[in-house]
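#struct-help
A.M.: can someone run this one for me? Single chain, 270 residues.
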Amino acid sequence: MSSQPIGVFDSGLGGLTAVKQLRSIMPHENIIYFGDTGRVPYGNRSVATISRYAKQDARFLLSHNVKMVIAACGTVSSTVLDLADVLPVPYINVISPTAYAAVQATKNGKIGVIGTRATIGSCAYKKEIEKIDPNITVIQRDCPLFVPIVEEGFISPDDEIAKLSVEHYLSDIKACGVDTIILGCTHYPLLKPVIGQYVGEDVKLIDSGKETAIYASKLLEREGLLNSSDAEGECAFFVSDRTEDFTNTASIFLHSNIGDNVERVDIWTY
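D.P.: on it. Structure tokens below:
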């Protein structure tokens, strides 16, 4: 059993949806979160740049003696394929557990995948789904406006900006008759009520943060690394830009106030 923290990183704030799920599933675990808010977004950058950023993010987490690294970022998960090879601790990305959950959920064999341009361009979810079941049809769509919409707080089912954006990006997927949609960016679960309202209650929405947290729990248990303490786990938050901006928006993702529990770091030194 290990009281070492779980390390989670993302290009910005979206990975907090994964932290929320980790805290719900494993309330005794300590968590170190790094949001690369100074270099967000990753989704429109080259693979070489994304790889360099991701490895710096992981090295920062390792400096805090984490027992596991989670890339709570669809862009990193889908484009940086060698990260596990350079880490001395277990590593999880969001692709495999989420794709598996989607395959288990679909009844008609039609799965939609939405994500950043980099995630969709990599076809990582499509490849993983087809590896599990080659008979499944995968319809992909990049939704570049969803991240800024979420970070600006336009997430209400009644918000016209959110509703118009969801209709714009998801009309083709809806027309194809999918019964399952992967929310392939950790920002997107905050738009779940808007997306669900548009596609209908019969369409299953797969939350990549939730599925990754479930898989992380199983892996830690298998490796004998769960925290045996009965105390509630602690979370520490780090960013690469203004702490004020992070603190103000984090409550939207976590549904709780983190107060002053956030520090700025110079990620370029890692």
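A.M.: thanks! The first strand starts at residue 6 and ends at 10.
D.P.: also worth noting: The domain at 95-209 is CATH 3.40.50.1860 (Rossmann fold).
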